[in-house]
Amino acid sequence: MISAYIDRYEGSLAVLLLGDDMKKVNFPREYLPAEAGEGDYIKIDIALDEEANEKAAQEALELLRE
């Protein structure tokens, strides 16, 4: 889980400061909670999508067999 601070909004982007070292990233505003505003902290959870990876690998193998 990553803690992020919403520094500001720039049009359709939110400028987030991530983690303890406050790395700056631009993030699409549409993916943030509607009630989140400048100065709020949010939590971001990033995980591998094993199911999607397996499906993509299977599709690639099927294409190679054709």
Q: Return the CATH topology.
A: OB fold (Dihydrolipoamide Acetyltransferase, E2P)
As for the number of domains, it is 1
Describe the biggest sheet? 4 strands, antiparallel
Structural class: alpha+beta
Number of strands: 4
| Global mean pLDDT | 95
Give the low-confidence spans. Answer: none
Portion in strands: 35-45%
Using only CA atoms, what is the Rg? 17 Å
Helix count, DSSP H or I runs of 4 or more residues: 1
Task: Give a verbal description of the structure.
- The chain is elongated.
- The chain contains one helix and four strands, in the order ββββα.
- It has a single domain, classed as OB fold (Dihydrolipoamide Acetyltransferase, E2P).
- With 66 residues, the chain is α+β, with helices and mostly antiparallel strands.
- The mean pLDDT is 95.
Looking at this protein, list some descriptive labels:
66 residues; alpha+beta; OB fold (Dihydrolipoamide Acetyltransferase, E2P); elongated
